[in-house]
Amino acid sequence: MKSICFIIFFISGVTLSQNLEEQIYSATEAFIANKNDHSYQRLVQQENNFKSEIKSKDEQLALVFLQCNKAFYLKDTNQLRKAISTYEEAWQRYSYHELSIISDFDIIEYCLKPLGNLYTKTNNYTNAENTIHQYIGLAEKSKNKAQNIAGIINLSALYQTRGMHSSVLKMVAKGERISGVSKLQEEKLTNLKAFSALALKSQIDKDIPKNQDMPIIEKPFAKHRLAYQLALKNKDHTKALEHFQRSKQFQNNEELTIRAMAKRDMEEAQLYYVLNDFDNADLFLENALRLLLPNYHNQKLPEESDLYAENTLIDIFDLKARLQTQIENALAYYDLSFYVTNLLTSSLTSQESKLANLNSNRKRSEWCIDLLFDAYEKDPNPKLFYRALNYAEKDKAAVLHEVFQKKSLLSKHPNDRLLLKEQELLKEQERLTDVLIKTKLGYQSLQNESLNKELLEVSIALKSVAQAINDKYGATQNQTIDFVKLSNQLELDQAALAVYFYGNKALYKFSITAGTHQLSKIELNTQFTKAITDFIHLFDHASVINNNVNSFTFQAFELYKILKLDQIVTQPNLIIIPDGLLNFVPFETLLTESTETNNFSKMPFLVTSNNVVYNSNINFYLQDRKKSSNHQILGVFPVFENSNQELRYSVDEAHSIQEIDEAKVLMHTEATKTEFLKTAADFGILHLSTHATGGDFINPASIAFYDQPLTVNELYSLDIQPELVILSACETGIGKLQKGEGAMSIARGFQYAGAKNLLFSLWQINDASTATLMDLYYTSFEKTKSAHFANRQSKLDYLQNPSISTTKKSPYYWGAFVYYGKIEPPVTRGNIIYYFFGMIAVLFVLFLWFKNHKTTNLND
């Protein structure tokens, strides 16, 4: 109806001279009057012809109108990705040509609102938020209260979807302060407020603002929905089903979309499932599938070609999997869920959106691993083991791995304009994200809607470039593991591999050597979680361990056994891929035996028997990386003398580096963020001795320079690719923990920027002991040119150093530094001599062969 009104409005204003404009409106009118696949294909062909002829703003506006109607049809026919792209193009056209100057076309109602809703439906939360913020800003400027409230309602609904209930209450409060709200909008605000207040009250009462009463809901449907939510919170599923079915009675099915009806059936199926009524659960799932998939036949596994990006399909397949009695059937449904998830996330451009989508994948991976573990216990078949391992690694450090793939492709094609454009846009996206964070924290004062607009434009451009790159080079490969390559690499490295998957109910451990495999399951009970967290907290302060050494030795050995490391320490090198809380555990400080000694230098630490190397996932370990020939070192030492943050012993670290050839040191006032950013890309090794913080839920992780800090988001926009980064600072491996991806730390920021290998800290390290460790590290590194070897050797040398007191040999002083990267065999003086004589022998053999070959030719 609204579309027809606009046609009348626009056509009535055209003149006879505007032939192309008339043609565009006529084509759109014809399509609206008879929407089907045939008329859609004709419209697409006409649109392509119009694009090549358009010149005036009026013609551009007519095409925007066509594209909005085209996108609406695509949305209604579940072609969501095409619908999003079409709305994006319409908005870009409208914005770029400044069409608001010549018309009062309602771009919010007919483009931005449906685009924001589609972003939300497809889990693109970053773009959804940016779009909604943008049209709220436009509505405020035009003083359109109805659209302002609509934006507030949609943004609140988005926050509610993401569990950000405090933000919902703040947005609702903002909406309530606006006068002239319609009755329907008032009801929506009340419902949003009620659901979020309920959610917060069930979590922590103190999160609800003082004097915050539960809103009174009058509408029967909303009242029963709230009662249903409350019953779910209280796990009274019988009452929840009763209120759910009562709420259905007050719904007008004629007003519901097919998607809404399918979603409702899905919800009812979930209720029947938790009530163990599996027949009814399956019945409602089948109803939902028939609604969403016209080609679907009952009880048959849907074809991937019939699927599309839709959240409800994921929920349906996950529940269908749990209803299966055969493991292969269950895994087939889970794989369909993964497939639809990939459809949803393939167009995401910001890492924030990608990270937000990882959690549901992780839950599904755990369900798959659990099924395969049960089968593996009965039959320890290698195929079952490797299938489970693939699920465990499926989304581990996935965002980081994708960045490395992009940079690897660029290194192969350094002059490709598409790849260069993508890197430029990614940098700009991270720069804008950093500005937006600083604006929210009050460090910068800019209009949010302008940032939101820029971020959305960058995201749209990135998606377009990414599609062109996929067409040219193929889509980014998933993280399927090459197990033959893994076995060969482990044998070459004389290494054992311990891969952990930290789920919601269990911790799974995959132990692998060149010829063996073992899968273990550890239940995540209170006792287990306490053992991990208590051990991590031993390193909060030096006195914690030194005041009770016996407690430390007991906990260190117990955790070693709990994590089942005794099953795998059969090789000199131990590669650990941690997950969850294990990202913060210093494995090298665990004890391999029970001990009664209080002398730290005599304790059986894991570091004394094994060289421990960490990695983010298996594919990082297997990644082929060309070793850099750039051995120049850049040392950064702000020192901060004559301040309460002075790092007095940092000067000793600087002297250790200054003695090395090809080293440049930035000290005191020279150690600025600006100078570092300007020169970092020229060096193969970066050493930063300074202060750092892991951040919190509001402030991002950051590392200090003499003038100002560098945040983790700023690191995301860099492209420096050093061979090694040494972060001699506190908490450089600490940050907000993202399931599967790890800590959002300064160390991860350097990985994102291209660092191939890293050495960083897990707690607030001691200045003096760090200086000693770093001196020992560089002494070993200069001899061996092996970063991982030098890391272990420096710790062993520290423990055996007679000039260091027993108290200072506590693992608190030496255990903070962990090495993430490749295993590089040490190059010793003996190796070099053997290599030299070996080369002479090869050259001598070649000389004899050449001489003999030449003589033979002459005789012939």
UniProtKB/TrEMBL annotation:
Every CHAT domain range: 571-821
Record keywords: Membrane, Transmembrane, Transmembrane helix
Alphabetical list of InterPro entries matching this protein: CHAT_dom, TPR-like_helical_dom_sf
The keyword Membrane is annotated on this UniProt entry: yes
Keyword Lipid biosynthesis appears in the UniProt entry: no
Gene3D superfamilies reported in the protein's UniProt record: Tetratricopeptide repeat domain
Transmembrane segments: 832-850
Name of the featured protein: CHAT domain-containing protein
